[in-house]
Amino acid sequence: MAGLFLVALVATIMLVMGKSMSGAIARYGILLAVIGIALCNVIGDVFSGIAVGLEAPYRIGDWIELDGVVRGKVVEIGWRTTRLLARDETYMILPSSKIARQQVTNYRRTTAEIPCTSGNMSWP
């Protein structure tokens, strides 16, 4: 409803000013395309974050591995990103859309954890 009102308002202003409607439509079309492309990754991250939140394949404190490459302890889960802390104290911020496209292996905390030489962290 608001979109229709906005289109009618723009059309009225363009007619009063004597401008061509096709030029205004082209400008607004290009503007919407640029905004859509700019927000594509952000929207994908948010929807992936919501899916990760609903599915809950891991929790804070879990050790996870992504495609056999990235390993770390989950320290924060947000709508757009998940933050991991690796054994060597490397802090990683991973977009939710990237995690959603990869195979996630979750090594849940067990009662018998293997101690690690780096700080007070352990790897199951």
Describe the structure in your own words.
With about 120 residues, the chain is α+β, with helices and mostly antiparallel strands. It is built from three helices and seven strands; from the N terminus they run H-H-E-E-E-E-H-E-E-E. It has helices at about 1-15, 20-55, 95-100; strands spanning about 65, 70-75, 80-85, 90-95, 105, 115, 120-124.
- Helix and strand succession? HHEEEEHEEE
Q: Low-confidence parts, pLDDT < 50 over ≥5 residues?
A: 111-115
* Mean pLDDT over the residues: 79
Strand pairing plus helix content: what structural class?
alpha+beta
Mass-distribution shape: rod-shaped
Beta percentage is: 15-25%
Strand order of the largest sheet: 4-3-2-1-5
Number of helices: 3
Question: Using DSSP, what is the number of strands?
Answer: 7
